[in-house]
Every structure is written in structure tokens, then in C-alpha cells.
Amino acid sequence: MDSFLKTGKLSNQSKGSGVPLLPGNVEEKKHSLIPWVEKYRPRTIDEVSYQEEVVAVLQKSLQGADLPNLLFYGPPGTGKTSTILAAARDLFGDIYKDRVLELNASDERGIQVVREKVKIFSQRTVSSVRPDGKQCPPFKIVILDEADSMTGAAQAALRRTMEKETKSTRFCLICNYVSRIIEPLTSRCSKFRFKPLPREILVKRLEHICIAENMSCSEEVLESLIEASEGDLRRAITFLQSIANLNSEACPTIEDIYEITGRVPSCWIEGLLEKCTSGSYDAMQSFINNFSAEGFSVSQLLNQLHERIVFSTELSSKQKNVICEKLAICDHRLAEGADEQLQLLDLSCTIMNSFQ
Amino acid sequence: MSLWVDKYRPNTLAKLDFHLEQGERLQKMVTKGNFPHLLIYGPPGAGKKTRVSALLRELYGPGVEKLRMEHQNFTTPSNKKIEVMTVASNYHIEVNPNDAGIYDRIVIQEMIKNIAQAQQLDIGGQREFKVVILTEVDKLTKDAQHALRRTMEKYMTTCRLILCANSTSKIIAPLQSRCLAIRVPAPSQDDIIKVLQMVSKKEGITLPADFAIRLAERSERNLRRALLMLEACKVQQYPFSVKQEIVEPDWEVYLRETGQKMVSEQSPKALLEVRGRIYELLSHCIAPEMIIKKLLKEILKNCDGQLKAEVTSMAAYYEHRLCLGSKVIFHIEAFVAKFMAIYKRFLEDSFANMM
Amino acid sequence: MSQKGWVKPDFAKGSEGYTHSTKKQCSSKSHMYDSARVKQSTESTECTSTPVNSSELVVQKKKVAEVKHWLEQAFSKSQQGQFLLLTGPPGCGKYQTLSVLCKELNIEILAWEEPIKHFEASEWEYEQYNPHHYREPKQKDVNFYDHLEEFLERANRFSTLKMKDAKGSVAHNSNMRKILLIKEFPPMIFKNLERWHNILLKYSHRTRTPAVFILTSTKAFNSTQLKLFPTVLSERLMMSTVNFTGLANTFVLKALQRVSLKSKQATPPEVIEGIVGSCNGDLRSALNAMHWITTSNVNVKKPPAYSKKRKLASVEKKDSLNTMYVRDGSLDFMHAIGKILHSKRLDQVQGSLPELPKHLLEEFRLPLKEDVNELTKNIDEASSKVLLYLHQNYPLYFNRIEDVSKAVGYLSSADSLGNQLVYKEIFDEWSLLTGVRGLLFSNTSVNGNEVAFKGSAWRPLRKPDYYSVLQQQQELHMHVQDGYGLKSTSGQLNYHQFQVSQSTDFSANVVDSVNSNGKKDRDEDADIIIEDYDD
């Protein structure tokens, strides 16, 4: 949250002039430190793309309607946090810092902490007039990011708090999976599902950033970037910044994208499948040794392999079934710290057997 | 005189022997001045450390090569004292947080806090940040990794992290997204041969091309291993003959013999013998997963297709158990015993078929 | 200030462990065996059994001779600083040998004691007024070395050292030859090993009084010894070393019989045998055990004891008696292990068992004779220790590798189960049950199907090698860490170095596992004694 507030402040300064000012060298250096994700967050809810439903509700509340408690859910990088932050900025303007409490998973979030923090925050009364004289709603907003990682007990504790403070505080819960939020909480909020962003919108957004950052990027590269980031805009922007960091002058290539995102080039996946169909264990083993020597991450390979297998046409459902089960097992073992090479070998043996 | 591995380690980015393009890019990044957190990953012996130290030199000049060893003390909340050894210069500090075991989170947080808060005295210095190098990040507990992401954001202005890891599989996604990930693939065989030839030339010894190729093959694309083997071979016999035996670490030879024992006899008694050998290896700090991998490699030579798959899946299963349990010998022995049972059945079956 | 610590040891004063016991100090006024006997009610058997001359020593004759030879030559030569290091497992008679020999050779022993309270007189009084006065550990630190140094200095400076004896009753013969004895190495000594080495070196240059160090070693590979007396140092000091080994059971038996004869109450022979069996070469603990039995079980009647002797062969019957003489329950523990490994199944069952489906017929087992839950409940040890013992010994009880592979699979599962952080107690129990039941189930060669392993029925239970392996790992790890900085700068290159750097390369990966293993098992008792258990 700290970093968020910090950048919020910085961007507020630059907002006044429209274009970021670069008065000196130091300022410039500091500027390069701001993650682009923060730099290019939508500033107003009008800027929020694609999520018409929630935008409509928020706009109404801008015009004076009451704001319900909100529950945003949807895949990562679809703009959940950005939307509520933009709305808060629209609602409160400069005093937005005093009116919003953002808690996310990396902050302490036990039951006690949530109760204390939220209680103290929500008990402060607020006026309905901004310092600059404009009208603003007489409530504060508590944003609970990554709410699905809160324990059930903490969520239950929240229930009471939400009801008690309803006069002066609105809650906005943000999560990836609505099923992980307990029923009593979801029933107290209006739910909004954030749809995965379609490709065109992602491309448009990335192009916008490229122009602003004075980067030249071909359509093709952006496409593969989006593929690598699996529709997650935040990841795509982060990757874009990394690429800009690594080589700013030259135009990035698709190989660069693979390099930055750690994605395994598809030739390796095809190669692995081919070796598996060949039925020669030794060929497969040396292929896997080479693969690990290249330093690719096996868990990344498993993800991509999964995609490849599920959508493959040459495999029967039964084969897919067997392979996917083993995939899950190997992924679990990897997550628990098992050796990459051995697990990949094991998986490949299963694939090989399923071909015979 | 030091080991050739250290002696011929390139100390600037420009002098790197392979992955030249990557080196260029790193250099550009340094000259441009925006230096994000880095995550450098790749298999052992690929040159991660070499790149890091060259990068540091690029950043701060030869001053970083004045290293000193320090023991830093940390106190855990339960008042337990941990001592961690660090290697540091005026500009950077290198630490392996795993030395602190399960207390790695405290070490990381405290150390970075200390460094970030201490102002750099040398105002004339080129950089306004110090570098903290964390090695073996993939072995960090999840707890420590989560703590790291907060710490990274908090002290971004005064310090940069360079994380070294063998693979990104075990590094949590938020941490990966905060770093610029740089993959260092193992050198290809040709690269290794080139380096071997270069080193022999500088040492003034002749290295027959065939022998170099054999060395490169045996090195498993690990440059450090290749250079150590070259040096050991030189000590053993020089001038080189093409047929010369390549010196291997004795524990690998020992493991190979162990594997042969498993193939030659399958009985409780043989198991006890193998156990003794495994204990011997373990007491010399050979990593248990390494034991399983090398054993697997050895015994697979004696298996046919279907059996290979079965044994491999056994190995994967029990190697995973290593991470769950605390007594490695149980799991390695379980693997050995399972193999013996499978192999015995296989022998009996094939014997019956022959009749 | 340090005068308090200067104590002249009495010969009757037995062993390391009890040096500070006040009870011991008053009782040890009696130097002779006979007078001790009178006071027997207040003394432990240990005192009554102190040998009076070298012929009574139960230590190996060769070792005694070695020590004697050293003592003799130490005074015959006029060389500076003679050093002797005695090492051996606890209770094997290191000190007794020395003291008896010294007495025979008319040598006085000046023993250094760890200063418990070393304050200036005023402080000392203050301490008395205020028992809760907190002592600065740092000050203690400094004092510790000062104390040691001063002690050595004084011993050196005065040709006849006047001992400050509380009673002042012992007249000193100024011509008496004396040796210095240091047999306690408090943990503080490791804080500043360099200083300790310097003190020794300084002493060796300036003194002519021979010095003896007694070091109790517990492990095969002893790091303490290497730390205290590194090879370089002992070479410079020209230190001789005598390694005592654990006493053979026959020696212990002889000693116990002798003591039993001398004492008022005779201990039944089978009890003595039991003690001998459980003491593992540690005479002192054997004596203690015997003393405990004779005092607490005064009514060990002969007739029942004899009847028991006849049944000794049966393991189960031994249980009732052995609780009397086992030292720490480890024999009980070994019994349980033995029972699990030696599982017996019923030959037939009353009534009919439910039929197994065809594909499971291979898994058919007759019911066990023992109740497994009862058995595991009675084991007080941590489940991981039980599993280690089972693991160490099980292959000898199996005939088929298929069974073994099943069994060790269960052990592997048990270990994975037992390594959970949450709900540890529950998982521990399940882990133990998985291991034990797994072993019982997998073994198909029970009830006489057993083909004895290598034709011998003698299958002693052994202590897991795991502990020593763990220790070696830690030592190597330490060694590697120390050598880490030197690696790249060291001059000579040889094949060994190649190995070292290779092993560092890989051991770096192991560091983590060593650490975590060490942590997990530190709570387990590392000093487990090897028990040979006759089945």
C-alpha cells in the first residue's frame, strides 16, 4: 500500500500539468523507478475499459447516488483494483488519501488487525464537503484486495463490522475467486464480475503505453506478449517495462518476449511430444537434460504443455485424461520442492506410455 | 596460484566467453543507469556468478573486487542467535540466506533494512544504491519470499537486489514479476570446448581436440565441472593422450558402483550393503536428490523400455518424498528396495519366457 | 579471588559427574575402602567400589601400563611440560586409573575445577545477601580464562604449591611429586579457543609439572578433541594420548561381583547380569544401577529371582524384572523394537475370518499375537526415534526383497507423515502406527518360515547409523564453511583440492537439508547408547 500511496502522490503532481514534467536529472531517475503498472493506471472511471456494468454503477454514484458495498471478482489483471481506485479518485479528489484504506494480502490481515484497523478508520466521521468546496459523498472506502486469501474467521469477523459501519463506510472486496468468499459476505455486497479483457483492448492499451514511452513495438510482438501474459494486463505491462529496461533502443523481437516472460519456446514443447511419440527413452532423456541445461522453468513448461495437450486434436480423451492427471501430480510435487528433471522425466514416461 | 576456474573467470561483461548478446544488453542497461532488481537463473555451472560479479564491476569499477568476509549476527523473535557469513565490498553484499535455515526471513529483512538505511558515505560514488546479492533464492521458504517482495518495494531507492537461482519454478510469481528475469542457459558443448582450448592456451599446455570433445561431453554442459576435470586430468597425466581416463569426482564413481550392486543382487542383504554406501555418501554431504538421480541414471542402463518408465516414476515419487520427510535415508532406501523388487520380478519373468 | 576453586581431589571421590555434589564432598572424607563401608548408608555404591590398587582396576591392563609408563617417564626426564590426554567413553575408568596409579607412585594430583563463583570477596558477600543478584556473563567469561591461567601460573611458580584446603588437615610433603589435572572443559572454553591454546603453549614453555587432561568422548568421531587439542597443538606440546575403550562386559561383571561381595547385601547374580547387559560398558552407571536396586529393592528375594532366571530365555517374562535395573528405559525400548521386528502371528484362528476377494488373497495375514496399539502406546520414545531403530534393523528380519520394498515404502510414508508442523502429536502417532503396522504387515516370513540370516540366529539390535551420519554431515558442513574463503586463494593444487571444490559445489546444495535435518532431530537424544539385545 505504501508504494501505491507514494505513486499516487507522484502521479497527482504530474496530473496537474497533464504531461509528466521532468525538471531535473534526479526527478527523471526517480521516475524510471515507478512501475508502469502504477504509472498507467486509469485515473478516472471513464478510462476504465470494457467493464461497462460496474462503470455504470460507479458513474451513478458519482452523480450523487448511494454506493453499495462492492465485491469485484474476476481473473487477475482485468482492472479490479484500478477501477475502484479510479472511482475513489473521482469521488474524493485530493482528499482521497484520507478517505481510502487499502489493505492487501502482504499486509498483516489477521482477524484482530482487520478489526482494529477498519474500526479506527471507519469511526472517523467525514463531512460531505471537500476542502476545495466541492460536494463529495459522506463516506469512506475500505478496499480489501485479494480478499480470497483471508481466512474464513477473518471474513466472518468482517461481516459484523460491515453492518455496524454501514453509515460511514463502504467496503470494496476484491478477489479472483468468488467461491472463496463466505456466503454471508457476498450477500452483503453487490457482485461485479470482471470479464477477461479481449485482445483488441489489451493491444490498444499496450500501444498507448508504447507511444507514451516512446517505444516502437510491432503488432506481432504485442500479440505474443499478450499470449505470454495470458490475458493479464498487469503482467503484460510489467513485461513491457522489463523489455524496455533490457533493450530500449532496438525494437523488441518475439524472442525477447520469450526471454523476458520466461515462456518456453514452442519448439521445445513440440520437441518433447515428438520424443515421447518416438518411444525411445534415451532420446527423451537427453532431450530433457538439454532442456534443463537451457535453464527454462519446468513448471512453466507444464503450464504450456497442459494447454497444448488439452487443445490437441491428435490425442484421445482417454490419453488426455491420463496425461493431465500426471501433469497435476507432477506440478504438485514441483510446488513442494521436488527435483525438476525427475518430475519431467516421470511425466514424459507417462505420455510415452499413453502413446503406445 | 588458484584453481583455473577462478583464475580465468572473466571479470568484465566485455570479456565473457559466451552469451555475448546478453552481456551486451546488460552492459547497456548499466550505462543507461536504470537498474531494476534482477533475477538471474540458470543451471549450475552456466556462469551466473560470473555475470553477477562482472555486472558489479561494471557498476562500481574495480573497487568491488576488494572483498571481505563478515559474520553477521541476527536474533530471532525467540531469542535464538543466528550467524550468517557474508561476503561484502564497499558497494555490495552477498549472502546465502539458507545458512539461516528456517529463519531466512529474518535474515533477509534485517539485512536489507540495515543496508538500505545506512547512507552511502561515499557521496562521490557513481550510484546511489547498493547491491544485495541473494544466492539460492529457490531454496528460500515461502515465508521469506513473501517478505522479500515487501522489502523490495520499500527500499527500492537505496538498494537493488540480485537474486540467483537454479530455476524459477520454486520462486513465487509476485517475486518474479518484480524482477527483471535473466536466463543464463548452460554453455553449449562448442562453447565449452572453446573455453577449454582458451584456458589450455593460456596455461601453455596442448589440448588435443578429441580430448577436449570428450571432456565437454562428460561435463554435462557444466563449465565449472569441465574446467575442474581438465585441471585434474592435467595433474594426473600430462601430456594428454586421447585415450586418457577422465578424472571424475570419486563420489560419482562410488555411486556408479552402488548402482551396479543394485543391479547385480536383489536381497535384503544387498539392500543393507547399499544402505551402508548411501550413508557413506550422505555423510560426505552429497545431496540426496543427487544420489537418486545418479543412481537412476546408472540402473536405467540395465532396464528395457517399460521397466525404465516404471523405475523413473519410482524415482520421481521418492525424490518428492525427500521434500516431505526429514530422514532422507528412508526414502532413498525405499527407492532402492522398490527397484530391487521390480528388477527381480523382471529378471524372473524374462527367465520364465526363455524357458 | 579464585582460591575457592582450588581443591585437592580425594581419591575416593569418584567421577566427573559428581564432583560438585556437596553430599559427595562430605562423604569423601573417607579415603579408604574400609571406612567407606561403615558409612555406606550415606554413600553410593560407586564410592564403596573404588579400587585401591592397580591390580583391582578393571581397565585393560595395557592401558594401565601405558599410563603408568607415562607417569614414570614424566618425572624421570627433565624435559619441560609433559602432557597426557586420556580419552574414552564415560565410565570406563579414566580418572580411576590415573588416581590409583598416582597414589601408588606417590604423586599428588592438582585438579583444576571450573570456578562456579569467582568473585572478589566483597562481591561474594554481596551475593550472599542477595541471592538473586544477576551475574554478568561477560565478566564470567573473562574470569574463566584468568582463573585457568592463574591456576597454571601458580602451579608453575611455586615448586611446592600450598593448597588452600578448607580443613587444612592434609600435610604436604614438599618433595611430593605432583601433576596437574584438567578434566572439565566447560562450554565457555570454546568461546575463545585461541586463548586456551595460548595458555597451554605458555604453560608448556614455563613449567615442569606434567599435566594430564581427561576428555570424555561420546562419539566415534570426536570434534571436541580436535577443537581443544588440534593436531598442530598436540604436536607442539608433544602430547601423548591414551584412548580408553568402553569396558568389556566381563570386566564390568567382575567389578560388580567384587563390589557385591564386599557390600553387606548380596545382589542376586541374575540382576548383576542384567545390569551388565544394560550398562553398555559404563561401569559408573552400572554401579549406580546396582546401588539403586540394592537400596530400593532391599527385598529382592532369592527364590523368585532364581525362578525367573530359568525363564530368562523368554523375552516377555524378562520384562518384569528388567524394569528394576534398566538405566533409562532403553532396554524396555529395545524390547518393544524387538517385538515389532520379531512379530509372531497366530497359527490358527477360532471361527472363520471373512473371505478376501480373489485379487487380495496375497494380502491375507493371520492375526498378530501382539496388540499393536498396546505395544506402540507403551513406547515412550519419540516416534521418529522408534522409526529410526526399526529402519536400522528391519532388513535382517526379512527374507524376500519384495517384502522389504513394501516395508520400506511404509517407512517412507511414515516419515513423510511425521514431518508435519501442524497437529504434530496426531501426525506423530499416525506416523508411528503406519511404520509399525507397515512393517508387521509386509513381513511374510514369520512363524518359523524364517530362514535365519546367514545361518545365525544372533541378530543384535543396533543403534541407527543415522546419528553418526548426521553428525559427520554437520562437521563437514562446518569445515566447508570455514574453508570457503580459502578455497580460491590457497596455493597448492592437488587432486584432493579438486575433490574438495567439487564437494563444496554440491554440498552447498546440501547445506539446506543438513540444517533442516539438524533442526528436526536436535530434540531427539543424540547420545543413544548401543544396545546389544539378545533375542
CATH fold-type name of the largest domain in chain A: Rossmann fold
Largest sheet entry of chain C? 5 strands, parallel
Chain pair sharing the greatest interface = B-C, 63 and 69 residues
Distance between the termini of chain A: 54 Å
**Pattern of helices and strands of chain C:** HHHHEHEHHEHEHHEHHHHHHHHHHHH
> What series of H and E elements makes up the topology of chain A?
HHHHEHHEHEHEHEHHHHHHHHH
Number of strands of chain C: 5
> Largest beta sheet of chain A, briefly?
5 strands, parallel
CATH 4th-level superfamily of the largest domain in chain A: P-loop containing nucleotide triphosphate hydrolases
Tell me the β content of chain A: 5-15%
Structural class of chain A: alpha/beta
If helices are DSSP runs of H or I spanning 4 or more residues, what is the number of helices of chain C?
22
In helices, the fraction of residues of chain A equals 55-70%
Gap between N and C termini of chain C: 58 Å
What is the helix tally of chain A? 18
Kindly report the spatial arrangement of strands forming the biggest sheet of chain A: 2-3-4-1-5
Summarize the structure.
Chain A: Keywords: ATP-binding, DNA replication, DNA-binding, Nucleotide-binding, Nucleus. Chain B has about 350 residues and is an alpha/beta fold.
